[in-house]
Amino acid sequence: MGIVSFCPQGHRIKVKDSLAGKKGVCPTCGARFRIPLASVEPPAAGGGATPLPEAKVVSLDATIAARLPRVLLLNREPEPARPEAIGSVNDVRREPGEEEVELVVEEVRRHPLIAERPDLAWCLAVPGGTASEPMSADAMQAWLDSGQATGNELVWRADWSDWRPVAGVFPECLRR
User: Fold this and answer.
1) Going by fewer Cβ within 10 Å, which terminus of the chain is more open, N or C?
2) 18 CB-side CA count, 13 A
3) Distances (CA, A) of 131 to 134, 154, 166, 168, 173
4) CA 135 to CA 139: how far, in whole Å?
């Protein structure tokens, strides 16, 4: 019978039942979307935005919460860059009788260029090659810490207008 669905841009797509719940690509616009489990109605005319799902607040163990990445809130100015600690929890509430858990704290050191704007995306490329997918500041720092930088690579940050050589941006992080 098939499933009738619509991509985020509103293009009608009919797919086989066996693809229900899987990710698909619109053949018209290339938008990626999840194929619904059953046929859906066309989006409302006028291009109105689909409301976002509501979040549900749940209890979370402090040791698990300490390992989760920080969340940057939208429509707010980013906090000034400061060394972050993995494993620290500021406000831990315990139930009566619950034992206290000691957390291991590891310092995360970032290169000053990464620390000044940790909210921006980074890309890497070799001259004449294709650029990497955008990566987070943490991923960029991990790449630098891995010792893979040779100096031939080019790096780009979301607020820069052009690519810059890694040797000029991160000279102290080059493989020797």
Assistant:
1) C
2) 0
3) 9, 9, 14, 18, 20
4) 6
Residue 154: give its domain's CATH number.
3.30.1490
Encode pLDDT of 34-93 as tens digits. 888 888 887 665 555 556 667 677 677 777 777 776 655 555 555 554 444 444 444 445
How many Cβ atoms are within 10 Å of 155's Cβ, its own excluded? 24
Q: Are 15 and 35 spatial neighbours (Cβ–Cβ below 8 Å)?
A: yes
Quick check: pTM over 0.70?
Answer: no
Query: Within a domain: residue 83?
Result: no
Domain range holding 26?
3-34
Q: How far apart are CA 141 and CA 111, in angstroms?
A: 7
Contact 131, 125 (CB under 8 A): yes
**103 in any annotated domain:** no
What is the per-residue pLDDT for 20?
84
d(CA 61, CA 38): 36
